[in-house]
Amino acid sequence: MPFPLLLLFQINMIKKTVQKEIIHFFELIGKPKMFTKSAFTQSRAKLKPKAYYDLNETLIEEFYADKEIKLWEGFRLIGIDGSSIILPNSKEIIAEFGVAKNQSKSVAPMAKISTCFDILNQMIIDPIIIPYKKSEYDMMLEHIKKLKKEDLLIFDRGYSAIWVFLLLIRAKIDFLIRIPTCIFKDFWENESKSTIKRIETCSEKSKITIKKRRLKFKRFNIRLIKVFLENGETEVLATSLMDDRKYPDDIFKNLYMMRWDVEGNYNHLKNHLEVENFSGKTIIAIKQDFYANAFIENIRSLLAQDANEEVKGKKKNAKYEYKVNRNLSLGLMKDEIVKLLMSDDPNYYRKIEKLFTIEPVPIRPNRHVKRIFHHPRGKRYHMNYRRSL
Length: 389
Description:
The structure is a single chain. This protein is α+β, with helices and mostly antiparallel strands and 389 residues long. It has a domain at 50-156 and 259-385. It contains 15 helices and eleven strands. The strands form two sheets. Strands 1, 2, 3, 4, 5, 6, 7, 8 and 9 form a nine-stranded mixed beta sheet that branches. Helix 4 (50-66) packs parallel to helix 12 (283-314), helix 12 (283-314) crosses helix 13 and helix 12 packs across helix 15 (347-356).
């Protein structure tokens, strides 16, 4: 299976039986020559998964170089968060990625994934997949290498640690992090709505981590802000944005809520793009599919951003603002993405963009995606029962 066709085939979202997808693909591109499932398996074994990672990096570089991007107060808003995915069951995969166990002692092959996500521009800057037992902090450190001084990181409370604050301040990367009640108890318990906290020291556990990460502790300041939710609960946010005139306390509630788009993106990846629906049972297949899916989603997002401008024009008098239907637009990309990448006609891009304007959905304020934790009882997509329709 030639290299260009192998790339195009995998980018076309292989979600049904592989042999049926192969037959359909060659009919799509008008090539009479057929390849078997075995030929595909042998060809993909020679292709490094990094090929799809590099394709995504090139797309990201071109996107930020050529497009006028959305910013918040001059910042690119970046959400970093991890998740876990269920993998096909094979000895090779278990040896590489590990398993998750539950109380009944049943095990399921699992991996950890993480995305560095541009919240306002809806682009996956950096996708990572690692063994299940590794830390989300390890992925975070890799993501940070992709960032710059004009980025504002928004984290949930799983990343709130003194050494993380120190690391980001030393790297001159601004942040907004929700913190749990066990940190800065004095501020949680007093009546102040905000304060500047001087970090003079840290726990022994943090000292060990700081040393392990080859950092040197130095006193620093962070700003703490209380946020009061509609359900009566209180949250505390820590930020490096110290100027209370430029960044008043009341802006941080809505700013932090923007992080829910990271959860929404995971919901989309798992339930619409079906990132756990793998096309093979090898380590290479897992990584190829994962990085190819990130690349596919970024192409869809890029097309959707241009289509959204047309949707706004059509719905300018509606009660709500409207946007491209993410699930439908992904489905419309099947086959069309292959035609687009094989075509020299710039009008073809416009044709797909037009398709994306079908059935837009309203943007309702103050909604968020409830996070769903999948029980590691076994894979959701079975190799022997892949769809043929």
